[in-house]
Amino acid sequence: MDLMSTSLEFLADDFDEILRLAPDAIIVHDMKSCVHYWNAAAEEMYGWTSEEIKGYPIDKICYLDAKEREFAMAKIRDYGTWEGELRQIDRKGDEHLVRCRQRLIRNQSGDPLGVISFNTDITESRKLEDAEKRAHHIRSSSLLAGGIAHDL
Q1: What is the pLDDT of residues 65-91, one digit of tens each?
Q2: pTM exceeds 0.85
Q3: Distance (Å, rounded) from C-alpha 105 to C-alpha 113?
Q4: What are the pLDDT digits (tens) for 26-59?
Q5: Region of 69 on the Ramachandran plot (φ > 0 left; ψ -120 to 50 alpha; else beta)
Q6: Long-range CB contacts (< 8 A, 24+ apart) of 138-146?
Q7: Are strands 112-121 and 25-30 parallel, antiparallel or unpaired?
């Protein structure tokens, strides 16, 4: 038990390192959407360093559809959480489909301070899913056409 508590204390002391190693892009922004935290995975996904992005409004940088972003922020303000998929762009202008899990951060009085986002780029996996669906549809259509031709 003593070894376990020592390990956990180490983790708490090195929280920045834990966030740096996270596979998801972790972003913290205030209620005006200005970025306050951007981990290494966010740097890799979006192309901006933490120093470059800090203080910039995230919705002016990454989001392709302002209405989708406004909908997500309304849900976060109303319910404290939102999960879904958003189309975003990186520094080069490449589009990404991102699975977002966002939570409202509140102060001790319960007032909203900001939002923490855990973003996973699902662009490639979605492309594979879509290709598999198309291939399945083509196989099904071919079987149906073959069956009809056989009947004729």
Answers
A1: 889 989 999 999 999 999 999 999 999
A2: no
A3: 6
A4: 999 999 999 999 999 999 999 999 999 999 999 8
A5: alpha
A6: none
A7: antiparallel
